[in-house]
Amino acid sequence: xxxxxxxxxxxxxxxxxxxxxxxxxxxxxxxxxxxxxxxxxxxxxxxxxxxxxxxxxxxxxxxxxxxxxxxxxxxxxxxxxxxxxxxxxxxxxxxxxxxxxxxxxxxxxxxxxxxxxxxxxxxxxxxxxxxxxxxxxxxxxxxxxxxxxxxxxxxxxxxxxxxxxxxxxxxxxxxxxxxxxxxxxxxxxxxxxxxxxxxxxxxxxxxxxxxxxxxxxxxxxxxxxxxxxxxxxxxxxxxxxxxxxxxxxxxxxxxxxxxxxxxxxxxxxxxxxxxxxxxxxxxxxxxxxxxxxxxxxxxxxxxxxxxxxxxxxxxxxxxxxxxxxxxxxxxxxxxxxxxxxxxxxxxxxxxxxxxxxxxxxxxxxxxxxxxxxxxxxxxxxxxxxxxxxxxxxxxxxxxxxxxxxxxxxxxxxxxxxxxxxxxxxxxxxxxxxxxxxxxxxxxxxxxxxxxxxxxxxxxxxxxxxxxxxxxxxxxxxxxxxxxxxxxxxxxxxxxxxxxxxxxxxxxxxxxxxxxxxxxxxxxxxxxxxxxxxxxxxxxxxxxxxxxxxxxxxxxxxxxxxxxxxxxxxxxxxxxxxxx
Length: 579
Ligand code: VG1
Ligand code: CO
Prior knowledge:
This protein is of the alpha/beta class. The protein folds into three domains: 3-193, Alpha-D-Glucose-1,6-Bisphosphate, subunit A, domain 3 (Alpha-D-Glucose-1,6-Bisphosphate, Chain A, domain 3); 196-436, Alpha-D-Glucose-1,6-Bisphosphate, subunit A, domain 3 (Alpha-D-Glucose-1,6-Bisphosphate, Chain A, domain 3, 3-Layer(aba) Sandwich), CATH 3.40.120; 438-578, 2-Layer Sandwich (TATA-Binding Protein), CATH 3.30.310. 34% of the residues lie in helices and 23% in strands. A hairpin with a 3-residue loop joins strand 17 and strand 18 (387-390). Helix 2 crosses helix 5 (145-157), helix 7 (207-215) crosses helix 13 (398-412) and helix 16 (468-478) crosses helix 17 (549-564). The longest helix has 16 residues, at 549-564. Residues 94, 121-122, 296, 298, 300-301 line the site of cobalt (II) ion (CO). This is phosphoglucomutase (alpha-D-glucose-1,6-bisphosphate-dependent).
């Protein structure tokens, strides 16, 4: 093949957000748009991660993925990479990409040094929806801010990109295709999307005990992939490996437009699962399953449900941490530490304190957990946004979280499956609250708000922080019975491993009784601004941990809306999504 230099001009809007670059497909389809970002990434990497290197390219299979894979493959050859690895049909979940970078050995003994993950995660897909691209490093984790800043700088000055005149490669068939260029050979290796990931899961969990649980007539199960890439793993893992019934899988055929749905596993968007679990409005006579779970488009998120019961993601990570050592073989030697993102509830903090574990609070986004894990400081971590994971890889992992819950259930029921009453998901959560107290928690999202208005709202909240007296006057004017604000700031994080500092990571109002209000602007949207409001209240008294969460939080919600003048700034009387 021959390599050519193509002249291009910069786009001004290629700043990576919380998790890569996400834009409407129409934006990505502009001539040279994707190429500019890919070349800017190659130019930002150390030379040894480009020349002669092995790159993984795959994603959640959304619309435009196949085109992108062909474009990136040609550019990889043009930039002197030695080989590209592609999951069959271009499918790899985000956690599987992380596992493949860390664990996979190619047919010729090669190892990967990085990946382009093609996904916009939980954002809808299709010609009129979102596409996205993100670069992951040698450790299997998202590029740190040092690299993403450099990529962005490069996108502002780019003048040319390199590409090879290769034919399109067949990504549907497993095998290696070789090409020779003036500087040597270039290979494209298409491999099975699931086998490396399954091997890793088997090394972490006791599949035999989970199989026993899933095959017990007492235990019923349901998994909804929302037509995302989790479908490429669900049948192999839950049905073939663990013996679940095929009818327990919902929407497990990956589709490029997610069947027209919004592949976000929460109570609003995972409608079918929510109804099946008896949480919908129309309560059918069919008895709901004991356990239900869903994933997002790229399968790094998870929602865990019990029969007519919702587990908040903040509780989920705390409960996994509290039970990991007993229930999951990978952790049997103990946890190195635990971590959560700042807006995630403090349920994990209480577990860390009780079990005497190292604890870290990082900004939103998985990239901040990676350094802690690489340094051996953290085993289990999570975010309130339905992200849970561990140091087995450097991404959050939706199927891992389900297997973790199934392991806990299998462990708690190890003597009950043949006789005795099943310990349910709800039992596990209520027992956890009784032991550790409960963190009532909710998040309000105001999506696609005018960007200027959102900025102003945030600026006002920052300004207000200079006078706690004024804040408390406003608070007591709205609700006389909530506790006092004792501290307010903009969250700033100093990475304990490399000392790097991340500023402006969200506005916090901390109350005397441990309650918190947090305001952030989303960094994953593709249109306008999304304001996220996080509301949390701690209840230690076991007699008061059984309340309905929206009831319990109503006074704090009123304070948050009043303090931020939400309606005044955004014109919205209600959030788009409540989780
Ligand atoms: C959101 C979540 C954050 C998560 C990120 C990526 O970011 O809040 O917790 O890490 O999405 O998840 P933001 O900036 O919109 O709040 V995913 O599954 O979209 O890769
Ligand atoms: Co995701």
